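ESCALATION

Customer reports they have been waiting on this structure for their group meeting. Please prioritize. Original submission:
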Amino acid sequence: MSVAGLAAPGSTAALQRVALFGISVVIGVVVAMAWNGSAAGAIYDGFLQLFLDPTAQIAGAAAGITLAFLLGAIHLVHI
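Update from on-call: job pushed to the front of the queue and completed.
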């Protein structure tokens, strides 16, 4: 596929890409609006309980660090 083919005004591929971009923007907006709801709070609380549970068996240091970074990311987005 050439660059000229992508830039053609009546190109079907370009219209499909624009439509796909529009759909993903709408999905992103809906997810972002729902993120502050109770589902995000439940996810945050679940990860927090899992991370602080002394009986939870974490496979290794890499899994613990990954879980800590994930918890931090959810904390930053949730608050």
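Sent to customer with the following note: The chain has two domains: 1-35, 36-79.
Escalation resolved.
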